[in-house]
Amino acid sequence: MISRVFILSTLLSSASAYSLAPVLQGLKAPSSAPLCHKFSARPGVRRGLTPVRAGDQPIPEGFREFQAREKSLDEWFAKLADSRSSIRQMASIKIAEMHDKEGEEQEKAVIQRLFSYLTLEDVHERRAAVQALGMIGQKVLPPLVDMLLATEDRVVRASCSKAIGAVALKNPELLPEFPQLALDGMKKAILDIPDPVTKIATISSLGQIGGGDVAHGYPGCERALDVLIEALEVSDDMGLAAAAVNAVATIGKTNEPFRAKALASLEKLKERAKDIDGFMFVEQMIEGQIEQLNGGGIVGEINKSRSTGQSSAQENLAKQVAAARSSGMIVDASAPPDEDWMSAM
Fold first, then answer.
1. Residue 110, pLDDT score
2. Which segments does the entry list as coiled coil (predicted)?
């Protein structure tokens, strides 16, 4: 009869060093280095946990280059062209943070360089530059207005308008007293430049400035609403009117003190629309927005159902809202500066 001791010793002697490695490793003195867990790379399969030192772990792709040292401005500018949105966003933030660290000369050079990015063909680089300019703040408004009104390139004009909106979005404390220079420039762009891309981008930014960030305690700028109202009163451009109607209504919905003014403007345009050829669609939009501002309509019913707990009715009406939005009857004009609602920008 073969003894159990013999069998066990035979098995141990024939075992590979690899199979015993986890056991031997477990006998080592504990390390003070932090531990993490290494998982199998095979899809759908997870092996047993093997303790490894964190220092032995490979740095995930996309993070390696951010280790060890601070990047220079030139390196961050290069990152504005990165294919990853998170890297472009980080680059915008760092450029805005560093733009004036070395004095006035560097500040001017960085701002000028960002302005040059507004003329690039690559949409991601333009949008990243728009975000950086927005974070730099009020000082970029005068040159943005100059560029908006001087350039013949509609994409550059649209980028300038979006950058003005980004200044408002990134610096909401400016909203109540937003510089009149910027509002006057945007008004001129809407009324004097025939290009629809410029008009819609500018109206969108005015919607941001007028709408504010009420949820965080920042009311909108009433003078931005006034610019939109004036545009509605003098323009027979259906595209401009449709965009401005939604912007005015959005401002009225988000800023209670401005609601009466927004309603009066829409009522006035509704009467004028009856005498303008092709404004039937705009007239229908106005009626829907007036109903919502007065607390009725689909949105009003959803709010009522929320308060009464009628969840099934709410879901039903939510579907109607989605259908209305997809058909263009309900449009939120206050789109973020880098949203994909206009791919040419």
1. 97
2. none
Q: Which fold has domain 172-338?
A: Leucine-rich Repeat Variant (1.25.10)
Q: What's the pLDDT at 63?
A: 53
Structure token digits, residue 321: 């809202």
DSSP state of 344: T
Instruction: For the chain, state the CA radius of gyration.
Output: 30
**What pLDDT shows up at residue 318?**
53
Q: Please, what are the averages of pLDDT over each run of 10 residues along the chain (345 residues)? A: 46 44 43 40 36 43 54 94 95 95 93 97 96 97 98 96 96 94 96 92 96 91 96 85 93 94 93 83 90 68 49 48 49 41 38
Determine the angle formed by the axes of helices 154-170 and 123-136, rounding to 10 degrees: 40
DSSP 246-259: HHHHHHHHH-GGGH
Concatenated DSSP letters of 194-215 = --HHHHHHHHHHHHHHHH-BGG
Selection from 217, 216, 209 nearest residue 168 by Cα: 209
Find the DSSP H helices in the chain: 4-14, 17-26, 73-79, 85-98, 104-117, 123-136, 141-150, 154-170, 180-192, 196-211, 222-234, 238-254, 259-273, 280-293, 297-308, 311-326
At residue 240, the pLDDT reads 87
C-alpha atoms less than 13 angstroms from C-alpha of 9 in its C-beta half-sphere: 5
Report residue 301 as tokens.
């019913």
Listed as own residue / partner, the contacts of 187-196 with beta carbons closer than 8 Å and 24 or more positions apart are 187/227, 187/230, 187/231, 188/149, 189/148, 189/149, 189/157, 189/161, 190/227, 190/231, 190/235, 190/240, 191/231, 191/234, 191/235, 193/157, 195/154, 195/157, 196/239, 196/240
Backbone angles phi, psi at 30, to 5 degrees: -65, 140
Rounded to whole angstroms, how far apart are CA atoms 331 and 31?
Answer: 60
The tokens describing 279, both together, are 């404004």
> How long a stretch of residues is the chain?
345
Nearest to 223 by CA among 206, 235, 245: 206
